[in-house]
Amino acid sequence: MKWEEIRREYPEQWLLIEYRELDAHLNVVEGEVVAHSPSKEEIYKRLLEIKGGSIAIEYTGAFPKELAVMF
Question: Over pLDDT 70: what percentage of the chain?
């Protein structure tokens, strides 16, 4: 499933995506949604259950301006 389709199908959700393709900036271009939830904590719990694979965590909503993200 392409990223734009994923965003439309799972609005304002945290996602675990087994990706098939990333762009040059490591953004998901295409993949399969493994889990979704409005709760980020639920997604991190599910991540602990997954062994291997090419997994990305994404959020499909807008981030508040005051939010800082660090990797």
Answer: 92
Question: What's the average model confidence in pLDDT over 37-64?
Answer: 92
Which residues, in sequence order, are CB contacts of 5 under 8 Å at separation 6+? none
Beta strands in the chain (DSSP E): 14-22, 28-37, 55-59
pLDDT of residue 8: 97
For the chain, the domains span: 3-59
Contact between 16 and 35 under an 8 Å Cβ cutoff? The reply is yes
CB crowding 24-58: b at 16 or more within 10 Å, else e: eeeebeebebbbbbeeeeebeebeeeeeeeeeeeb
